[in-house]
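Hi U.,

Before I forget, here's the chain from the pilot set. I'm dumping it here mostly so it's searchable later in email.
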Amino acid sequence: MSVPPPADPGAAAGVPVCPRHPDRESYVRCQRCERPVCPQCQRQAAVGVQCVDCVRGQGRTPAARTVFGGRVGGEVPWVSYGVIATCVGVFLLQMLGVDDITGRFAYAPNTTLAEPWRMVTSAFLHSPSFLLHIVFNMYGVWLLGPALEHLFGPIRFAALYLLSAFGGSVGYFVLASPHANDAWYGGVVGASGALFGLFAALVLVNRRLGRDNAPIIGVIVINAVLGLIPNSVVKIAWQGHLGGLLAGAAVAAVIVYSPRRSRSWLHPLGLVCVLLLLLLIIAAKVASIPPGMLASQLLAPVIQ
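Structure:
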């Protein structure tokens, strides 16, 4: 909705006067609305001058948005860089052995109820004994993060990353067996689940924009296969990759396919629904554990 400019008071008399100061004649006109503007109301523009009303109106003009709701412009992708900086900083603390950060914040299925925050904090940890673990993950975030953050906006991108990380832990929890001690009590770390969520988001973005998905699908397949190959250096939790991929796809579907007119309320509602779905999946897994095993295996966190 726009408000029409006030009428030129001097138009009827044939003498151009400033709308804000009817007692002042002015033969200089605003470059935008073409109304007369006196020296007091003139504001220098790139070409000519503009009136006060037009200058103020420019400040209230809504910023241009991408098709997915991000702001058009050269904004710095602070969320992407923040994730990388946090992971690198935490990795240095892990290398230094500060306060057993790995043991306190890594995730294992038996910690799900007692210390649920581990399902997210583990995504900011990496294996101190395998440098390439953090290098590959952060390189992936550096490649995909800024582009997706630009398209989605910082808040939506942060939701995508965190829900994908959480979904990775949910996937590991659901597919782990309480009878397998190594998987149930052993801690897992890494941003791979969140990174697979970014992979899924990029696939949906490319599909929505009519772009070729072959390269990114190839990367997903290669990483999925590598996760299934036994590795004596670092254990790769393919369950977390799968969980992150599915959670990222769900989040991205909400953002990518919401109608433009409804995204102001449909995006937050859809993201909350994804979170609730993940919580329901956890509840279903907990309900499947025999009551006699529940207290010993989910309420007394022990990480090997």
